[in-house]
Every structure is written in C-alpha cells, then in structure tokens.
Amino acid sequence: MRRLIIQILKKFWFPILLIVLRLLGRKHDWAAKTHTVLKKAR
Hints:
There is one protein chain. This protein has helices at 2-25, 29-41. The chain is mainly α. The protein has one domain (2-41). It is elongated. The termini are far apart.
C-alpha cells in the first residue's frame, strides 16, 4: 500500500501542488502568486 502511494505521488506531484496552492490562494496572497507563476511555466 505504501509503495502504491509513493508511485502516485511521484507521478502526480505537480498537479497536486497546483491544487493545494490554488486552495491556499484563497487565503494567502503568496500562494495565489505562486500558483499563477507555476501555471504559466507549465
């Protein structure tokens, strides 16, 4: 089970990061700016 979770995180770490930053961006300005920059760089 642990190996499966690690494989999923290795494959999808960037989309997960973008989702977390988008959610944090509602409350924190720095997260919204970081989300915008990473979305453009993608």
